[in-house]
Design goal:
By secondary structure, the protein is mainly alpha-helical. The chain has a single domain (about 5-185), classed as Four Helix Bundle (Hemerythrin (Met), subunit A), CATH 1.20.120. It has six helices and no strands. Helix 1 runs parallel beside helix 3 (about 65-90). The longest helix is centred in the C-terminal third of the chain and has 33 residues, at about 155-185. The termini are far apart. About 35% of the residues are buried.
């Protein structure tokens, strides 16, 4: 439990309420928002810990069942919370909510599928494309947080929304891959 990689993963989970607090309530009347800029810094730190918890666990030979369990949960909690707060604050709005919804629904569906397959003692490894999807999601949401802190730089918001759609498209592909793999075991 008290291995450094597990502590880093737990710190990510525990930082989510602070991240949400920094983003809520949004102050749309300012040329910049200190809360968003602080949230961007915290979000980047959380992303760094996401990289290092896995790297350290593998490098030190301390991969644990708890870490394997908590790491994807920490990712989903962070991504889900950021998407919800950015939609609530209207940083993601209009048709762009569809891309955010695709990402949220896939995360829930794949989690349910993994839980079902775990009961059958079947593991579904994370694909390389799914890792790219996660990276693209993190970059997209980071850009949208930064755009809230620097609303006068329109390119940041546009970049965040374009990468959100790219992540949503890859999300559909990887979600289908997981579903197809899982259906083989559901119909057997």
């Amino acid at each position: 439990m008290m291995l450094l990689p597990n502590i880093l993963t737990l710190s990510r989970i525990l930082a989510v309420p602070l991240l949400v607090a920094l983003l809520w309530p949004a102050d749309a009347d300012r040329a910049w928002s200190l809360g968003y800029l602080l949230a961007f810094g915290l979000y980047c730190l959380m992303g760094i810990t996401d990289y290092f918890d896995g790297y350290l666990a593998r490098a030190q030979g301390t991969v644990s069942k708890l870490g394997i369990f908590l790491d994807p949960i920490a990712d989903k909690i962070m991504v889900g919370a950021v998407i919800l707060i950015l939609c609530a604050n209207r940083n993601i709005q209009g048709a762009h909510i569809i891309a955010a919804l695709v990402i949220l629904l896939r995360e829930i569906a794949v989690s349910g599928l993994r839980e079902f397959l775990a009961g059958l003692r079947i593991s579904v490894p994370v694909s390389r494309l799914a890792k790219w999807k996660t990276a693209l999601q993190l970059v997209s949401l980071g850009a949208l947080i930064l755009a809230g802190g620097l609303p006068h730089i329109a390119f940041i918001q546009m970049f965040g929304l374009v990468t959100l759609w790219a992540a949503a498209i890859i999300t559909l592909v990887t979600g289908w891959d997981y579903l197809r793999a899982g259906l083989k075991h559901m119909t057997a």
